[in-house]
């Protein structure tokens, strides 16, 4: 048994509300690498915490998980191999990260540390997930000046770690 010396007995449970679909001024307030799955070896992802800046939903947050280091995905689609599905997940994550990178640090810039992505206002379009509409999904990320021509991005290169340690693996 654990003794509880004190706590606020008047506190009410918090209610988490999804953001309504729309475009918001948001900024990344936290970036971390975590396992894609807690129970299976599926590689790692970059988890971005986005926070609304201003307006009715000021301070509200949503999350984006980019499977940049996906491994061992199992195909649920006839005619697609496990490796094709895994590579497709990495390709989508790299395209999404390219949009984040260009909206925060600019076109053609190389990001080696997620700290450079933090606290930069962006225009973020949020909507319901296709498979789980009760959850939000980041649909698009654009720079605040997206009304101006910002150039077009080519396909993002696949992430490579150059044979170094895998960022989501725990050090022994």
TrEMBL record:
Source taxon at top rank: Bacteria
InterPro entries, alphabetized: DUF669
Segments of this protein annotated with the region Disordered: 144-172
Biased composition (Low complexity): 146-160
Protein name per the record: DUF669 domain-containing protein
Organism listed in the record: Tianweitania sediminis
């Amino acid at each position: 048994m654990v003794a509880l010396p004190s706590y606020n007995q008047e506190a009410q449970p918090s209610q988490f509300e999804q953001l309504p679909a729309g475009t918001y001024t948001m900024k990344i307030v936290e970036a971390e690498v975590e396992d894609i799955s807690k129970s299976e070896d599926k590689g790692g992802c970059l988890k971005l915490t986005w926070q609304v800046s201003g307006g009715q939903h000021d301070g509200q947050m949503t999350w984006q998980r980019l499977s940049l280091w996906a491994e061992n995905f199992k195909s649920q689609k006839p005619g697609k191999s496990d490796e094709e599905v895994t590579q497709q997940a990495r390709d989508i994550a790299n395209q999404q990260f390219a949009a984040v990178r260009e909206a925060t640090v600019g076109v053609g810039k190389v990001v080696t540390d997620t700290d450079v992505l933090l606290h930069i206002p962006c225009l973020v379009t949020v909507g319901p997930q296709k498979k789980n509409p009760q959850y939000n999904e980041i649909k698009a990320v654009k720079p605040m000046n997206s009304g101006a021509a910002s150039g077009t991005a080519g396909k993002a290169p696949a992430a490579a770690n150059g044979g170094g340690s895998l960022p989501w693996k725990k050090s022994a």
